[in-house]
Amino acid sequence: MSAAWSWYVIALIVLNIVGCVWLLWWTGRRKPGDPAPTDTSHYWDGDITEYNKPMPKWWINLFYITIVFSIGYLIYYPGLGAYPGVAGWTSAGKHEQDKEKFDARLEETFRPYVGQSIDVIARDPTAVELGRAIFSNTCATCHGSTAQGAIGYPNLTDDIWHWGGSPDQILHTVLDGREGVMPEWGKVLTGMKGDNAVDYVIAYVRTLSNPEALQGDFMAAQGKPLYEGVCVACHGIDGTGNQELGAPDLTDGYWMYGTSKASLYQTIAHGRHGVMPAHRELLGETRSRLVAAYVWSLSHEDGAGTAQ
């Protein structure tokens, strides 16, 4: 806050306090010439009289006490512009104190799981429930409250893992994030086989989960050499992918961006760029282990505890 604004705020506060004191004094005193409290000459219905009685002294004194209290409050706490107050209290400082207190309680709750493997943590029902709560607060925005994902966000409840589904791989994903890039191949493929090249590759890719469908499919047959010339570097000759690169398995029937021809065309011709943010700084290692254990438990029910 600038000095000018600070003095402006101080002036407003002082004027309001002085104004309240003056108003109490002016309205609470009897002025010369005022009629007696029982003599106002205002009558209604013959027996109802309007009196002119000021407020009781004890009531007015309570107002004065309130004003004195407000002055003391403004001196003790920061209320006069940029003046910090004699107590040195700040809302940011109070927040930090409360945060430290609750962080200490959380650390005590999480202490039993420090450094444990997520498959071990997942056997503890309490830990699974803690992980579920962290997931709901942090991960459900993208993966959904049921962890079944959405278009562009993977389903975490099945056994399909683009970056690997081992405990260490899942933990690495949560802690340090992932970045998957599908390059744009539209221009390259068109230069190789003409305007229908992307459609040919789509037709062939769809046969990878059912090789017998390749027989007699002209478009898929045209797409096979294109796939082998461009796509095998990441997805492999058999289309099973490469978890080291995050290249998905094209034979499992799962398509993160949808199964429609338009979606596959967008993926191949124009590429995709998927990012899983790193959560190491946001959650810390132990909370990341808990949420990773919860995610691991969703597809390993036999080796996981049941959330309460």
UniProtKB/TrEMBL annotation:
<dbReference type="InterPro" id="IPR050597">
    <property type="entry name" value="Cytochrome_c_Oxidase_Subunit"/>
</dbReference>
<dbReference type="GO" id="GO:0016491">
    <property type="term" value="F:oxidoreductase activity"/>
</dbReference>
<keyword id="KW-0677">Repeat</keyword>
<keyword id="KW-0406">Ion transport</keyword>
<dbReference type="InterPro" id="IPR036909">
    <property type="entry name" value="Cyt_c-like_dom_sf"/>
</dbReference>
<comment type="pathway">
    <text>Energy metabolism; oxidative phosphorylation.</text>
</comment>
<dbReference type="GO" id="GO:0020037">
    <property type="term" value="F:heme binding"/>
</dbReference>
<keyword id="KW-0560">Oxidoreductase</keyword>
<keyword id="KW-0375">Hydrogen ion transport</keyword>
<keyword id="KW-0472">Membrane</keyword>
<dbReference type="GO" id="GO:0046872">
    <property type="term" value="F:metal ion binding"/>
</dbReference>
<keyword id="KW-0349">Heme</keyword>
<dbReference type="InterPro" id="IPR038414">
    <property type="entry name" value="CcoP_N_sf"/>
</dbReference>
<comment type="similarity">
    <text>Belongs to the CcoP / FixP family.</text>
</comment>
<feature type="binding site" description="covalent">
    <location>
        <position position="139"/>
    </location>
    <ligand>
        <name>heme c 1</name>
    </ligand>
</feature>
<feature type="transmembrane region" description="Helical">
    <location>
        <begin position="58"/>
        <end position="76"/>
    </location>
</feature>
<dbReference type="GO" id="GO:0006119">
    <property type="term" value="P:oxidative phosphorylation"/>
</dbReference>
<dbReference type="InterPro" id="IPR032858">
    <property type="entry name" value="CcoP_N"/>
</dbReference>
<keyword id="KW-1133">Transmembrane helix</keyword>
<feature type="binding site" description="axial binding residue">
    <location>
        <position position="182"/>
    </location>
    <ligand>
        <name>heme c 2</name>
    </ligand>
</feature>
<feature type="binding site" description="axial binding residue">
    <location>
        <position position="276"/>
    </location>
    <ligand>
        <name>heme c 1</name>
    </ligand>
</feature>
<feature type="binding site" description="covalent">
    <location>
        <position position="231"/>
    </location>
    <ligand>
        <name>heme c 2</name>
    </ligand>
</feature>
<keyword id="KW-0812">Transmembrane</keyword>
<dbReference type="Pfam" id="PF14715">
    <property type="entry name" value="FixP_N"/>
</dbReference>
<keyword id="KW-0479">Metal-binding</keyword>
<dbReference type="GO" id="GO:0005886">
    <property type="term" value="C:plasma membrane"/>
</dbReference>
<keyword id="KW-0813">Transport</keyword>
<keyword id="KW-0249">Electron transport</keyword>
<keyword id="KW-0408">Iron</keyword>
<comment type="subunit">
    <text>Component of the cbb3-type cytochrome c oxidase.</text>
</comment>
<feature type="domain" description="Cytochrome c">
    <location>
        <begin position="218"/>
        <end position="299"/>
    </location>
</feature>
<feature type="domain" description="Cytochrome c">
    <location>
        <begin position="126"/>
        <end position="209"/>
    </location>
</feature>
<keyword id="KW-0679">Respiratory chain</keyword>
<dbReference type="Pfam" id="PF13442">
    <property type="entry name" value="Cytochrome_CBB3"/>
</dbReference>
<dbReference type="GO" id="GO:1902600">
    <property type="term" value="P:proton transmembrane transport"/>
</dbReference>
<keyword id="KW-1003">Cell membrane</keyword>
<keyword id="KW-0997">Cell inner membrane</keyword>
<comment type="function">
    <text>C-type cytochrome. Part of the cbb3-type cytochrome c oxidase complex.</text>
</comment>
<feature type="binding site" description="axial binding residue">
    <location>
        <position position="235"/>
    </location>
    <ligand>
        <name>heme c 2</name>
    </ligand>
</feature>
<dbReference type="InterPro" id="IPR004678">
    <property type="entry name" value="Cyt_c_oxidase_cbb3_su3"/>
</dbReference>
<feature type="binding site" description="covalent">
    <location>
        <position position="234"/>
    </location>
    <ligand>
        <name>heme c 2</name>
    </ligand>
</feature>
<feature type="binding site" description="covalent">
    <location>
        <position position="142"/>
    </location>
    <ligand>
        <name>heme c 1</name>
    </ligand>
</feature>
